[in-house]
Design goal:
This protein has about 290 residues and is an all-alpha fold. It is built from twelve helices and no strands. Helices cover about 75% and strands about 0% of the residues. The longest helix has about 35 residues. The protein is globular and about 60 Å long.
Length: about 290
């Protein structure tokens, strides 16, 4: 400085300096803090995620997934993936029987303009049953999903446990902070990772239990852990990679408040990075026969 006064950048680096609050925004601005410059974008994506999850949840009330745990998976996917999660649900996640039923109801509504006599009614008693039987047989004979869809669904199933863990963990830490080695960030990441293992293995346990109800519980837990620990770790690693960029590269080392839209927008991006990191891992586990594709 010209007159012996510290510069704005120097003031920012002096803890407790009386003018540090005044200059902090200028210093952070030098580091291109996207989260603070675009709060409206953060709000749009977070609200869009909540709305997408609500639309999926409403549809699941009348169109349940054959595997019960997938109802929760799709709702949680909508929260972080937003409109992309909504597209994925209707593109290849929604039960095809529901779409066929809706088309059949529309067809029947246009075909049956009026009811004439009892003979038509009697004939109508048998045909729907035969159609439904044919639909079931057709559904049973449907070919398996493409490999990429199976890998994507398995990754979303894995990520749902991570998503739930981060939601529960971050709000728990908001009220009960945990630090490791004096670092709140390290405490948060370790705590969330442990919760992700618990919830993720629990989701995998529910999936295996639904398919193989007679298998001993201990065996299911062992298989669930074997199938998901590696993919859960990959998902969390991808998440933490982005959050490290968001905190240290974009926010000058300062954490965002958990009550802000910017924080949860960064978490949505982190989930997407986790998905990209875990997708090849899940595909490899399926090819190796360690994990069953969805």
């Amino acid at each position: 400085s010209r007159r012996g006064r510290p510069t704005k950048r120097a003031v920012c680096n002096i803890p407790g300096h009386p003018q540090s609050e005044r200059y902090i925004n200028c210093c952070i601005g030098d580091k291109l803090v996207l989260m603070q410059q675009f709060p409206d974008i953060a709000e749009i994506f977070v609200v869009g995620g909540i709305a997408s999850a609500a639309v999926i949840a409403a549809d699941l009330r009348t169109c349940r997934q054959p595997m019960r745990i997938m109802n929760s998976v799709w709702i949680l996917t909508g929260l972080w993936a937003g409109f992309f999660g909504l597209w994925a649900y209707y593109a290849f996640g929604r039960v095809k029987r529901c779409t066929l039923d809706e088309k059949e109801r529309r067809t029947e509504g246009t075909a049956s303009g009026g009811k004439n006599g009892g003979n038509a009614g009697a004939g109508g008693m048998d045909m729907p049953g035969m159609d439904m039987h044919g639909m079931r047989m057709e559904q049973m004979a449907m070919p398996a999903r493409p490999r990429w869809q199976s890998a994507v669904l398995s990754t979303l199933h894995c990520g749902a446990g991570c998503t739930l863990a981060d939601l529960v963990g971050e709000w728990f830490l908001f009220f009960v902070p945990v630090a490791i080695g004096g670092s709140m960030i390290a405490g948060s990441w370790v705590f969330d990772y442990i919760l992700a293992l618990v919830f993720g293995i629990g989701f995998q346990y529910a999936a295996i239990r639904g398919m193989e109800p007679k298998t001993p519980r201990g065996e299911i837990v062992r298989r669930a852990a074997k199938a998901d620990i590696l993919s859960l770790t990959a998902w969390q690693a991808g998440m933490y990679g982005w959050m490290a960029v968001a905190i240290f590269a974009l926010n000058g080392g300062a954490t965002l408040p958990r009550t802000s839209f910017q924080f949860w927008f960064m978490m949505q991006i982190a989930m997407a990075c986790g998905f990209l990191a875990a997708l090849p891992v899940n595909a490899g586990l399926i090819r190796a026969g360690i994990k069953k594709g969805m």
